[in-house]
Amino acid sequence: MTSMKKIATAIMAIGLTAISVSAQTLNVTVGSVTYQFPASQTGDMTYTDGTTLTIMGKAFTISDITEAYIDATEVTDNLVSVAYSGTSATVTVAGNVAQYVTPTISGAHVTIAQSNTAAVDDDEITYQLSGTTTDGSLTMSGSYKCTVSLAGVTLTNPSGAAINITNSKRIQLSAKKNTTNTITDGSGSQKACIYSKGQLQLQGNGTLNVVGNYKHAIKSASYITIKNLTLNITSAVGDGINCEEYIQMKSGTVTISGTGDDGIQCDLGGTTSTGETTDHEDEDSGNIYIEGGTLNVTCTATAAKGVKSEGDIIVSDGAITVTTTGNGEWDSDDSETKAACGLSCDSDMTISGGTLNLTATGSGGKGMKCDGTLTISDDPTITVVTSGGLYYNNGTTENTNYTGDTDNVDSNYYSSPKGIKAGVKDESGNTTTYSGAIVISGGTISVTTSGHNAEGIESKNTLNITGGHITVNAYDDAINSAQDLTITDGYVYARATNNDGIDANGNCYIQGGVVYAIGTTSPEVAIDTNSEDQKQLYFQGGTLVAIGGLESGASISQTCYSSSSWSKSTWYALYNGSNLALAFQTPSSGGTTLVVSTSGTTTLKSGVTVSGGTTYFGGVGNIGGTISGGSSVTLSEYSGNNQGGGNQPGGDQGGGNQPGGNQGGGNQPGGGGPGQ
């Protein structure tokens, strides 16, 4: 141990030279911790009872001092450096924060207690981590916010959390520019590899790699924000990112894979949501905000969600790619099946910008789902592809590719794959209620589903389209609503290979826009409504092409025309007077009746060649192009009363798989009201 005489000599030296050589620094080392006091800041240093030395408010017991020396080290105020090396670690503390920082080191496991309750010299304390250890950690406690700066650190704790911060204040976790940092945990009782009890701001221009071998990769008991950082979560037993209150991604690149549960999950911190607040002040909403950056999530676990919120999901910008491959599962707590989903929330979902690519290949998988209202506006680009089958499980028997009829199956026993789903239909006792809705006023939306019972876009309440470019190719109904469905503008393509193109279980109102709907063969139709409950299709305007015909009993305000035959895989040109309203290519299969309408004089040509113009509907529609060749098609006025369809009880013109009317139009005899 350095003698008292040597310590006294060092102190005297710095005292004599402080005025003339302000760059000199007094270093006081206690074990593996060195405190650095710049000569320009030390002021008076005092002894107490000949055993205690106090420098800048930091009291040292003389017998604990390993070494004291003077050098010309430049000290950065408010900085605490933690350097890992194999099985050991050293800590260096700037003198201006020495009195507030108490490090304890055991091998390479560093514990720091921070005692300040306000800023020090108008700034917060920064803890900078560097070096490598396979058996180390950082544990921190305190009552004031701080920054943890990752400066090229590889930190592995085989027996607990790698970084565990119990401060109930905001923690800024920052990866320094041009550094790669890898954080890994092991077995234990920790909540995550990186855990913060307080708010966690993930940022920096460096790279952070995280491996969660026990539970979550990253967790905050408060909110999480992400900015600039390149974050790679390569595996986690639980969620990739888990937090409470809200998550806000502003920029950066986040890649999450290898999770045993959800990619990102945000829950309420309390029991009651505050909703979104101004500047998110004191917000506890369970919301997820994606405002920019690149987010890539791959989930392979059963029934896992790529991005899951207990509140809302709000996407205003950014590039989001989510792939789920897990099948569904039986939830014994709720006694129902659950399935994987790309974006899922318990409340509303709002998408006003960004590019979203959502893929689900597992049984029952969905692209996006919300229990509240889904609003798509402005100019996002959304692509959804699902290819999994229908998932069935009654608690004892599982079928990951169920292909049977679900009409008489308890809805709790199966999860159908769907592209986009919103709202909840609740049948409790004798009462049926509907919540949520789908509202689309902009954006480019492409949905493709191929699994059994897979619908493209489904609302469990109303569905309202006032704009946007929508292209749906589905196995089951392409676009479906449990209540009224209204289209007033936009470009809508809805093709179902095994059901109706557009299906409203309430009334269906088509008042404008360009609508190209394709249903399969009778009894299904291009546009269907719930006529057995006296609901009706109201066609009131716009440009319409319907292969498979319209629901029987449709109310037609703008004249429609039909052709009893149409050629498959052929280009047609639909004219409004002399103007091209829509050039369209027919599918390779579909219903027998072709119905068309425009707002003026309607004529139709078949076998045309189209060049130039603007393409729509994945290449099967064109507006503004140059038309050459072709031959005129003979059209008959369409009354709206000569086409049945649907899977529900029929009427005077039955058209379902259930009893019909005086003219059976389905697979069973007819019966009392209009068929569907």
Any idea what the shape is? Answer: elongated
Q: Rg to the nearest angstrom?
A: 33 Å
Mean pLDDT reading: 91
Instruction: Give the quaternary arrangement of the chains.
Output: single chain
The major β-sheet equals: 37 strands, mixed
Which runs of at least 5 residues are low in confidence (pLDDT < 50)? Answer: 12-20, 642-676
- Beta-strand residue fraction: over 45%
SS summary, helix count: 2
Q: Terminal Cα separation, in Å?
A: 94 Å
Instruction: Provide the helix percentage.
Output: under 10%
Quantity of strands, as a count? 71
Class inferred from helices and paired strands: mainly beta
How would you characterize this protein structure?
With 676 residues, this protein is mostly beta strands. Among the domains are: 4-71, no CATH class; 105-311; 484-645, no CATH class; 646-676, no CATH class. Helix content is 3%, strand content 49%. It has two helices and 71 strands. The longest helix has 14 residues, at 4-17. Mean pLDDT is 91; it is low at 12-20 and 642-676.
Secondary-structure map with pairings?
Elements lengths: L3 H14 L7 E6 L2 E6 H4 L3 E3 L3 E4 L2 E4 L5 E5 L7 E7 L2 E7 L6 E6 L1 E7 L10 E9 L2 E7 L3 E11 L6 E3 L5 E5 L4 E5 L7 E5 L3 E5 L2 E6 L3 E5 L3 E4 L2 E7 L4 E4 L1 E4 L3 E4 L7 E4 L19 E4 L3 E6 L5 E5 L3 E3 L3 E6 L4 E3 L4 E3 L2 E5 L3 E3 L3 E6 L5 E5 L2 E4 L4 E6 L3 E4 L4 E5 L11 E2 L2 E5 L1 E5 L2 E5 L1 E4 L3 E6 L5 E5 L2 E4 L3 E6 L4 E3 L3 E3 L3 E6 L5 E3 L3 E3 L3 E5 L8 E3 L7 E3 L3 E5 L7 E2 L3 E4 L7 E6 L2 E7 L8 E4 L4 E5 L2 E3 L2 E3 L4 E3 L2 E3 L2 E2 L3 E3 L38
Parallel strand pairs: 2-8, 7-11, 10-12, 11-13, 12-14, 13-15, 13-16, 14-17, 15-18, 16-19, 17-20, 18-21, 19-22, 20-23, 21-24, 22-25, 23-26, 24-27, 25-28, 26-29, 27-30, 28-31, 29-34, 30-35, 31-36, 34-37, 35-38, 36-39, 37-43, 38-46, 39-47, 43-48, 46-49, 47-50, 48-51, 49-52, 50-53, 51-54, 52-55, 53-56, ...
Antiparallel strand pairs: 1-2, 1-6, 3-4, 4-5, 7-8, 9-10, 32-33, 40-41, 40-42, 44-45, 59-64, 61-64, 61-71, 62-63, 62-65, 63-68, 65-70, 66-69, 67-68
